[in-house]
User: Which sequence fits this backbone?
């Protein structure tokens, strides 16, 4: 019974925030900063190092090959601008591509991908949404992560 004492049993020691709590915090963050604008249809936060999705909006799934393709698009922005970007079985025309941001569109729908030190923010907008508000919201969230060194 003595080994159940909280202060001595290593099982009960807190070593940081559990991944499930971090995931909830990121889920809340993308909902509060992106989805709540009503100009972001779907979004995700991806860890660039291992291409893992850390959080995403409800129903938005990114597969590792999609994430890798998005990461690769930043390696040659001029080529990405010329060729566009293939995402979710559609070819998007590139509106902007530099070392930190890719904006692309397919008709009135669009894709916004922002790179930070360790993360990739991916967002889409639909034809009834304003692209400028989507871009602004995603860029502001990226700036927040940059300030945190993420």
Assistant:
């Amino acid at each position: 019974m003595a080994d159940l004492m909280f202060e001595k049993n290593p099982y009960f020691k807190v070593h940081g925030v559990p991944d499930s709590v971090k995931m909830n915090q990121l889920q809340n963050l993308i909902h509060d900063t992106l989805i709540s604008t009503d100009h972001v249809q779907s979004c995700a936060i991806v860890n660039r190092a291992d291409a893992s999705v850390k959080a995403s909006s409800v129903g938005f799934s990114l597969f590792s090959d999609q994430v890798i393709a998005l990461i690769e698009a930043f390696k040659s922005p001029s080529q990405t601008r010329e060729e566009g970007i293939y995402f979710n079985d559609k070819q998007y025309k590139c509106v902007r591509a530099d070392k930190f941001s890719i904006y692309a569109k397919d008709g009135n729908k669009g894709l916004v991908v922002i790179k930070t030190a360790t993360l990739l923010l991916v967002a889409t907008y639909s034809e009834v949404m304003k692209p400028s508000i989507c871009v602004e919201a995603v860029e502001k969230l990226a700036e927040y992560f940059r300030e945190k060194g993420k």
Remarks:
- The beta strands are 42-47, 52-56, 85-87, 90-97, 101-106, 109-115, 119-125.
- The chain is about 35% helix and 30% strand.
- Residues 131-147 form the longest helix (17 residues).
- Residues 83 and 93 are 7 Å apart (CA to CA).
